Amino acid sequence: MTTFDTIQDDAIASRHGQRAGGRFSLPHFVRRLPVGLALSWLVLAIAFLWAVAPWLFTSYNPLEGVGGEQLRRPDASHLLGTDALGRDLYARIVYGAVHSLTGAFVAVALGLVVGTTIGVIAGSVRRRVDDAIMRLVDVLLSIPPLMLSLSIIILLGFGTVNAAVAVGVTSVARFARLSRSEVVRVRRSDYVEAAFGSGGTFAAVLWRHVLPNSLTSVLAIAALQFGSAVLQISTLGFLGYGAPPPTPEWGLLIAEGRNYISTAWWLTTAPGVIVVLVVLAANRVSQSFGKVAA
Amino acid sequence: MSGSNVPHPPVLEVENLSIGYHDGVAHRRVVHDVSFRIDPGEVVALVGESGSGKTTTAQSIIGLLHANGRIDGGSIRLNGTDIARWSDRQLDAVRGAKISLVPQDPASSLNPVKTIGAQVGEILRIHGVASGRDLEAQVISLLGRVGLSEPALRARQYPHELSGGMRQRVLIAIAVALKPQLIIADEPTSALDVTVQKRILDLIDELRTEFGTSVLLVTHDLGVAADRADRLVVLQDGRVQEAGATKVVLAAPRSAYTRQLLADAPSFSAVARKAPATAREKPQASGDDVIIVDGLVQDFVRTDGNGKSFRAVDDLSFRVRRGTTHAIVGESGSGKTTTIRAIVGFQKPTAGRIEIDGTDLSTLRGETLRQFRRKIQLVYQNPYGSLDPRQTVFDIVAEPLLNFAKLARPAREEKVRAILRRVGLPETALDRRPHALSGGQRQRVAIARALVLDPDVVVLDEAVSALDVTVQARILDLLDELQRDLGLTYLFVSHDLAVVRQISDTVSVLKDGRLVDGGTVEDVFERPGSDYTRELINAIPGQKRAALV
Question: Which residues, in sequence order, are CB contacts of B63 under 8 Å at separation 6+?
Answer without folding.
Answer: B83, B86, B88, B91, B95
